[in-house]
Amino acid sequence: MQDSYDVVIVGGAVIGSAVAYFLTANPDFNGSVLVVERDPSYVKASTSLSSSSIRTQFSNPINVKISQYGSEFIRNFADVMQVAGEDRPDLNFHPGGYLFLANTAEGEQTLRENHAVQRACGADVVLWDQDELARAFPHLRTDDIRIASYGQSGEGWFNNTGLMYGFKAKARAQGAEYVTDEVVAIGRDGAQVTSVTLKSGAVIQAGTVVNASGPRAALTARMAGLDVPVEPRKRTLFVFDCAKTPEGSAQVNQGRLPLMIDPTGVFCRPEGRFFLTGCPPVEDPAADWDDFEPRYEEFEEIIWPALAERSEAFEAIKVVNQWAGHYDFNTLDHNLIVGRHPEVTNFVYANGYSGHGLQQGPAAGRAVSELIIYGQFRTLDLSEVGYERIVQNRPFLEKAVI
């Protein structure tokens, strides 16, 4: 490890490693990159504990385009990210699609408005009435459904840690350095950050500092005398088995079931021979940094009743596993924050993904690298989700947050 780097990235999970990859992959960048990761096992990282899905069904064009790029990147991942002499890093992408259901006039209007945005961006999404929905997925009870929105391609789920480790391996092969340590202080001289101090005692000079520290983003920002409205919010996921699985019964997509979002907010998707499910919590306070205790009651009280109501196949189910992870939750508007601090311009935010970090990681990593190399976004303009909106208390509107 050197005593000075052009770019120091705080956090080495999927976002930090994506930034490191895109920097070192760009022939216009010849600087040095250090990634500081406090726990290289990543056992409690949001990346490792996520449901690892990707969708284009958002209400804002920026989010749609971010995921379209992410979907393309994931499809080509094995070729692009292969390291010489190593196996191809296949993410086992499962193109199951997303299925949003609406049973109110307001919900129907939202899906129709979202669909118009998605189609304008070229997303492969269709709207179905009740009869079309019932034909496509005959296991569902559809009597209360007014409309459904279904992603026919470009949506699904994949290997979450595979994405992270693939970025990391390729970034290291391209010259990025990784160190197992923890940033405990950030030096600052007026409007510039100058260094990071590590728990080991090392002081590293830094030309640019990238905050990619997930749910701990606010702690990292405060070390530089700055702030960001990001806090850990706990989400519990359950894996369940069915007495009689409906997987294979779909009349579309070769029988594969999608990730379904019920009007109650409960979601469910196939996970091998099992199913993965979760729901928005009734109460959603900030979690303690080290609190990963699942909310076991959510399955019995919220999830099972909703699923049993939606499908006879989900009446006889049993939990076989559960875990809790943390969203890096943006309390202003539940959307990513990517950009420089407007005053301390060599401090760059890559935070606040609020559950969308895996699918938005490729586009965010590319965007941060462009800011550092060129001083501006070059491929996809993410100015709307920059830090300026935080200062101005101007939320970035996205209606399709789950």
UniProtKB/TrEMBL annotation:
Spans through the membrane: none
GO cellular component assignments: cytoplasm
Signal peptide: none
Example GO biological process: mitochondrial respiratory chain complex I assembly
Domain FAD dependent oxidoreductase: 6-371
Matching InterPro entries: FAD-dep_OxRdtase, FAD/NAD-bd_sf
GO molecular function, one term: oxidoreductase activity
A Pfam family the protein falls into: DAO
Keyword annotations: Oxidoreductase
Record bears the keyword Oxidoreductase: yes
Name of the protein described by the UniProt record: FAD-dependent oxidoreductase
Source organism (scientific name): Paracoccus shanxieyensis
